[in-house]
Amino acid sequence: MTDNLLQRARSGDRDAFAALVEPYRGELQLHCYRMLGSLQDAEDTLQEVLLAAWMGLEGFEGRSSVRTWLHRIATNRCLNALRTTRRQVPAESAVPSVPRVPSGPSVPSAAARPEPSRLGEVLWLQPFPDLLLDGLPDQNPGPEARYESREAVSLAFVTAVQVLPPNQRAVLILRDVLGYRAAETAELLGLTESAVTSALKRARATMEAVRSDDRPDRPALAPGSPEEQELADRFVAAFTGDDVSALVALMTDDAWVRMPPLPFEYHGTEAIARFFSATEVHPACPVARMLPTRANGQPAWGLYVRDTATGVLHGAGVLVAAFSPEGVSALTHFETTVAPWFGLPRTAPELC
């Protein structure tokens, strides 16, 4: 079947080409997302990949599978994007004041804002809707993989990967996530096998250091489990009730709060409590609704705050949480621009 589609596609049949690449579109998009950390960049790069594949069909000799051929194109397109894009932490003076968590406040002024635990490096980070994960036909990694599919799409993993230099990032994802062998990875990247082995060793060491500094390894609660739902209910009650004490009590001692594209990051319950307490809280029904969704295999919500003039509830961003048996280990707030990817409406029916 594949050979027939390939022959027809080479003769200029666009429908045959679409049928040839469609089974791999979802995993290619996810691959680009892991490489780039941004869903928008991943989608743009995916379109470049498909165009390059269409234009390069004559050069595909069939020595590898169509999937491997497409991964080669996708990886190299991502590497080109990473090498030509300069991503830097903006100066604090350039950071805008926009609605933030909890309860839809604005970020405190420089005078009122508590000192952040650190400035983040991955300000371009965006969430990945679970709706797109559900469409993947097979998420089982290859035999060489070290990360399970669920872990390899988590925000913690994607964030850590962004710290790696481009070549190390590509090698780690191809080897430890997708499970390509060293020789296959070398051929995909146009490197020697020894160069791949060396890059992988350095990448693994960096990942271990970054992730151990970020938080100790702990299991996540099973998606859809009673334990996850119970913690979610308690979290939503504290968040919508604007109860900072109850919210902080649900968090682990080493929890993180992040707000890309703002560079401020807060670590530990003491710093998080100071940040939440310093925010400007609206007096009446600050977060009137939290519409549940999922991102990166994690619980997430669309946040809605009340317009005091009209009473209409407007979207105030997407909040993604990491749940562990010990409590909430991370909160990441994203801007309203990502809400359409989750099918979240701009406004929501009011509840209070």
Automatic annotation (TrEMBL):
Residues 156-207 form the RNA polymerase sigma factor 70 region 4 type domain. Residues 233-280 form the SnoaL-like domain. InterPro entries: NTF2-like_dom_sf, RNA_pol_sigma-70-like, RNA_pol_sigma-70_dom, RNA_pol_sigma-G_actinobac, RNA_pol_sigma70_r2, RNA_pol_sigma70_r4_t2, RNA_pol_sigma_r2, RNA_pol_sigma_r3/r4-like. GO terms for biological process: DNA-templated transcription initiation. GO terms for molecular function: DNA binding; sigma factor activity. It comes from the Bacteria. The keyword Nucleus does not apply. Gene3D superfamilies: 1.10.1740.10, 3.10.450.50, Winged helix-like DNA-binding domain superfamily/Winged helix DNA-binding domain (1.10.10.10). Residues 90-112, 207-227 are annotated as: Disordered. The keyword Transcription applies. Keywords: Sigma factor, Transcription, Transcription regulation. Residues 20-87 form the RNA polymerase sigma-70 region domain. CDD domains: Sigma70_r4. NCBIfam families: PRK08241.1, sigma70-ECF, SigX5. Interacts transiently with the RNA polymerase catalytic core formed by RpoA, RpoB, RpoC and RpoZ (2 alpha, 1 beta, 1 beta' and 1 omega subunit) to form the RNA polymerase holoenzyme that can initiate transcription. Belongs to the sigma-70 factor family. ECF subfamily. This is Sigma-70 family RNA polymerase sigma factor. The lineage of its organism: Bacteria, Bacillati, Actinomycetota, Actinomycetes, Kitasatosporales.
